[in-house]
Amino acid sequence: MALHTPAPIRIRLFAALREQAGWAERDWPFNDHIPPHPQAAPPTPRDLWETLQLPGALGDVRVAINHQFAEADTALQAGDELAFLPPISGG
Amino acid sequence: MDRVAQLQINLHPAAFEPLTLLSRWQHNGAAESQFIGRVRPTASDGAALLALELEHYPGMTEQQLENLAAGCCRRHGAISCLVHHRIGRVLPGEAIVLVAIGADRRGPAQRCCQELLEALKHDAPFWKRECRTDGISHWLTGNTPL
Predict the structure, then answer these.
(1) Tally of domains within chain B
(2) Domain span at residue B16?
(3) CATH of the domain at B64
(4) What are the φ/ψ torsions at residue A39 (nearest 5 degrees)?
(5) How many pairs of residues across A and B have Cβ atoms under 8 Å apart?
(6) Which of residues 17-36 of B touch A (CB under 8 A)?
(7) Using one digit for the tens of pLDDT, what is the confidence trace for A7-16?
(8) Which residues of A touch B59 (CB under 8 A)?
């Protein structure tokens, strides 16, 4: 019987943050253990920001989950699209 | 019951002519307020500007523009809303944004237009990179003062 593998979290970076980090998007396996959480706890954007050692301070960017602004401590779900958005300058 | 505003929102990868788009816009309000923003010929530090490069977040930008427009129109009782916004490489003098609001009276039309413009500048995921004529480029981290 095939084991069910949760869909990964798609992580996306934009503009200056993308250039500083050197990548635009990557998938994070949903069931990967992220310290200090126990295996069962879902990761948060803050966990992934710190684990991936993204440049700068998380407080300087905005977080979006599935195209909606979200808090950095929101529990992520399998298949979510997580984006870190540097300061916006539209119009 | 609140009236639901008619929204038209478009992103343009190539230059658009705002006055042509306005002439084609159909709305029923007695009052109309419009804003056209164009790219300056100078960068934020005063150097000559070659172009602005406008990045966006496909999917979220359109959704967020629609959310912002619907919210502003609801708060001000506006009847209709037109938003055109550039993406990609925009040259000095070209239009980067057009916002137009139709309403029953001038007050709601003007207030809604201003609020929506400020909202999209701060809460719609767009990023500008200034490309100077001397070859230097950098990402902007904020907006010009009101």
Answers:
(1) 1
(2) 6-134
(3) 3.90.1170.40
(4) -50, -35
(5) 68
(6) none
(7) 999 999 999 9
(8) 67
